[in-house]
Amino acid sequence: MADRSRISTSVLLTCAAIGVATGVLQAGAGAISGFVSAGAPILYGLVLGVHVLPGVVAQDLLRRPWVALITHLIAALVASAIVPLWIGRYIGTALLIGGLQEIIAATSRYRRWEPWRFFLSAVIVGAVIAVAIWFAADITKFALWAQIVYVALFIVGPVAWTAVGLAIGGALRRAGVARRSRA
């Protein structure tokens, strides 16, 4: 019997494909984040939410341990190849979000894959990022209502991108990708 803790080549290749596609999206989000921060900073949480996508797609499709973290790291490397100046940000974000997604999946011993689990994960990731941003950004420059919306969008962003990731994962599963990648 094969060792279940080993990750097959097809799983790694699937993680790589997802990582490349989502890494390009992350680099794009990074490219527009400066403009969003300068022109409409209240929307920054929606842009930053794209960083949950690699782990959501990988976990929804493959439903195995470590795929979120592996896919996040590959996405970070791809985004860093496009925007080398931000390698630290991309790798740090990959470790933070991918690690949180793995921990949340591990609490159910990688046996629960219902959509609510992914959305719970998104809310937790969003809350962690919102707290970090609260201390890192000077949001006191905003009116109180804008502060509330600004922080709330750091939770709404990952939730919205999780819905996108679940749609992508479902489409890939229906296309038969998961059958070839599970072993």
Question: How would the blueprint of this fold be written?
Answer:
Blueprint lengths: L8 H31 L4 H5 L4 H10 L4 H16 L4 H20 L8 H22 L7 H31 L2 H5 L2
Compact summary:
The protein has about 180 residues and is mainly alpha-helical. It is about 75% helix and about 0% strand.
Description:
There is one protein chain. With 183 residues, this protein is mainly α. It has one domain (9-175). Helix content is 77%, strand content 0%. The chain contains eight helices and no strands. The protein is globular. It holds the Pfam family ABC_cobalt. This is Acyl esterase.
Q: Kindly estimate the percentage of residues that lie in beta strands according to DSSP.
A: under 5%
Overall form? globular
Q: Helicity, in percent?
A: over 70%
Number of helices: 8
**On the 0-100 scale, what is the average pLDDT?**
90
Q: Tell me the structural class.
A: mainly alpha
What's the multimeric state? single chain
Largest sheet: none
Organism: Microbacterium yannicii
Protein name: Acyl esterase
Keywords: Membrane, Transmembrane, Transmembrane helix
InterPro entries: ABC_thiamin-permease_prd (IPR017195)
